[in-house]
Amino acid sequence: MAVSDEQIEQIKDMFADLGGLSTRKMMGGLAIYHEGTVFALLHSSGQLYLKGADGYGEELEALGSTRWSYQKKDSGKEVKMPYWTLPESALDDPEEACTLARAALARL
Fold this sequence. Notes:
By secondary structure, the chain is an alpha+beta fold. The chain has helices at residues 5-14, 56-62, 94-106, and strands at residues 21-26, 29-34, 37-42, 48-51, 67-71, 78-85.
């Protein structure tokens, strides 16, 4: 299921204080950019992920985030992506979401 225009607007509202925000639909989901750098993804399932580069993923885990992973169809091997769920507390708090996004961007 592809992301909706309503979901895209919610993402833009959530991260509005960052400025320089743009999005691009891809593979049913949405890449979220700040000044041309991808810092988050909205999966087609509706799950929002922040990029956890340079050790930031472990900090997100400490806040209750989980890492995005999936099973390869051909081998069954688990593939771990460099993205972690946005902590539950930030889903309804744009200020916290932007603080976490700024920390993610600082590591890219």
